[in-house]
Structures
1.
Amino acid sequence: MNLMGICEETTTGVARLKKKYQNNQLRYPAVAINDAKSKYLFDNRYGTGQSTWASIMHLTSLHYILSSDNLENKVYQVPDEIDEMIVREKLRVEGIEINGEV
């Protein structure tokens, strides 16, 4: 298997990944989807299934991050600019426009 990295979208899962990192047991770079604005603003509040779509987007961003040869096996947060883009798009679809920071 040619696994490049992983995503986790549960509080318990992210805590376990961080513990593995602290114990030097994390085998792949990981993105903590659970900590992303696009996760807790939509999926946690409305149960919209937003996390599935957001996970795909975050995996795509992980692909670009992984093009770097200096990537460590640790738990990464979702890049703010990508997370904000997802939040803005979801709000736009719901008819809400944001002109400032999310």
Note: The beta strands are 6-8, 30-32, 75-76.
2.
Amino acid sequence: MSGKTTVADMAARVAADIGIKHIVPWALVVILGIYAFWQRKLRMLQIQTDAAERRELEKRIDTGRSSSHLTADGRTNPADRE
């Protein structure tokens, strides 16, 4: 491949021009931000999955139990924010 420019060669040149010390921190921020949003989505889905079963079990234990009126995904009811 003598005399030919490869993708890796171009990437190395760009990294050298920009400076690898600036790329790594921003790459980590982006990766960790995506991971955080992904974990939040998984947590919300798990709450929704467990909510109906938990509500049924609580009714069996104590029929007079009052609800906290949280939304199905575990967030505070908008009416309670006032």
Note: The chain has one domain: 7-61+69-76.
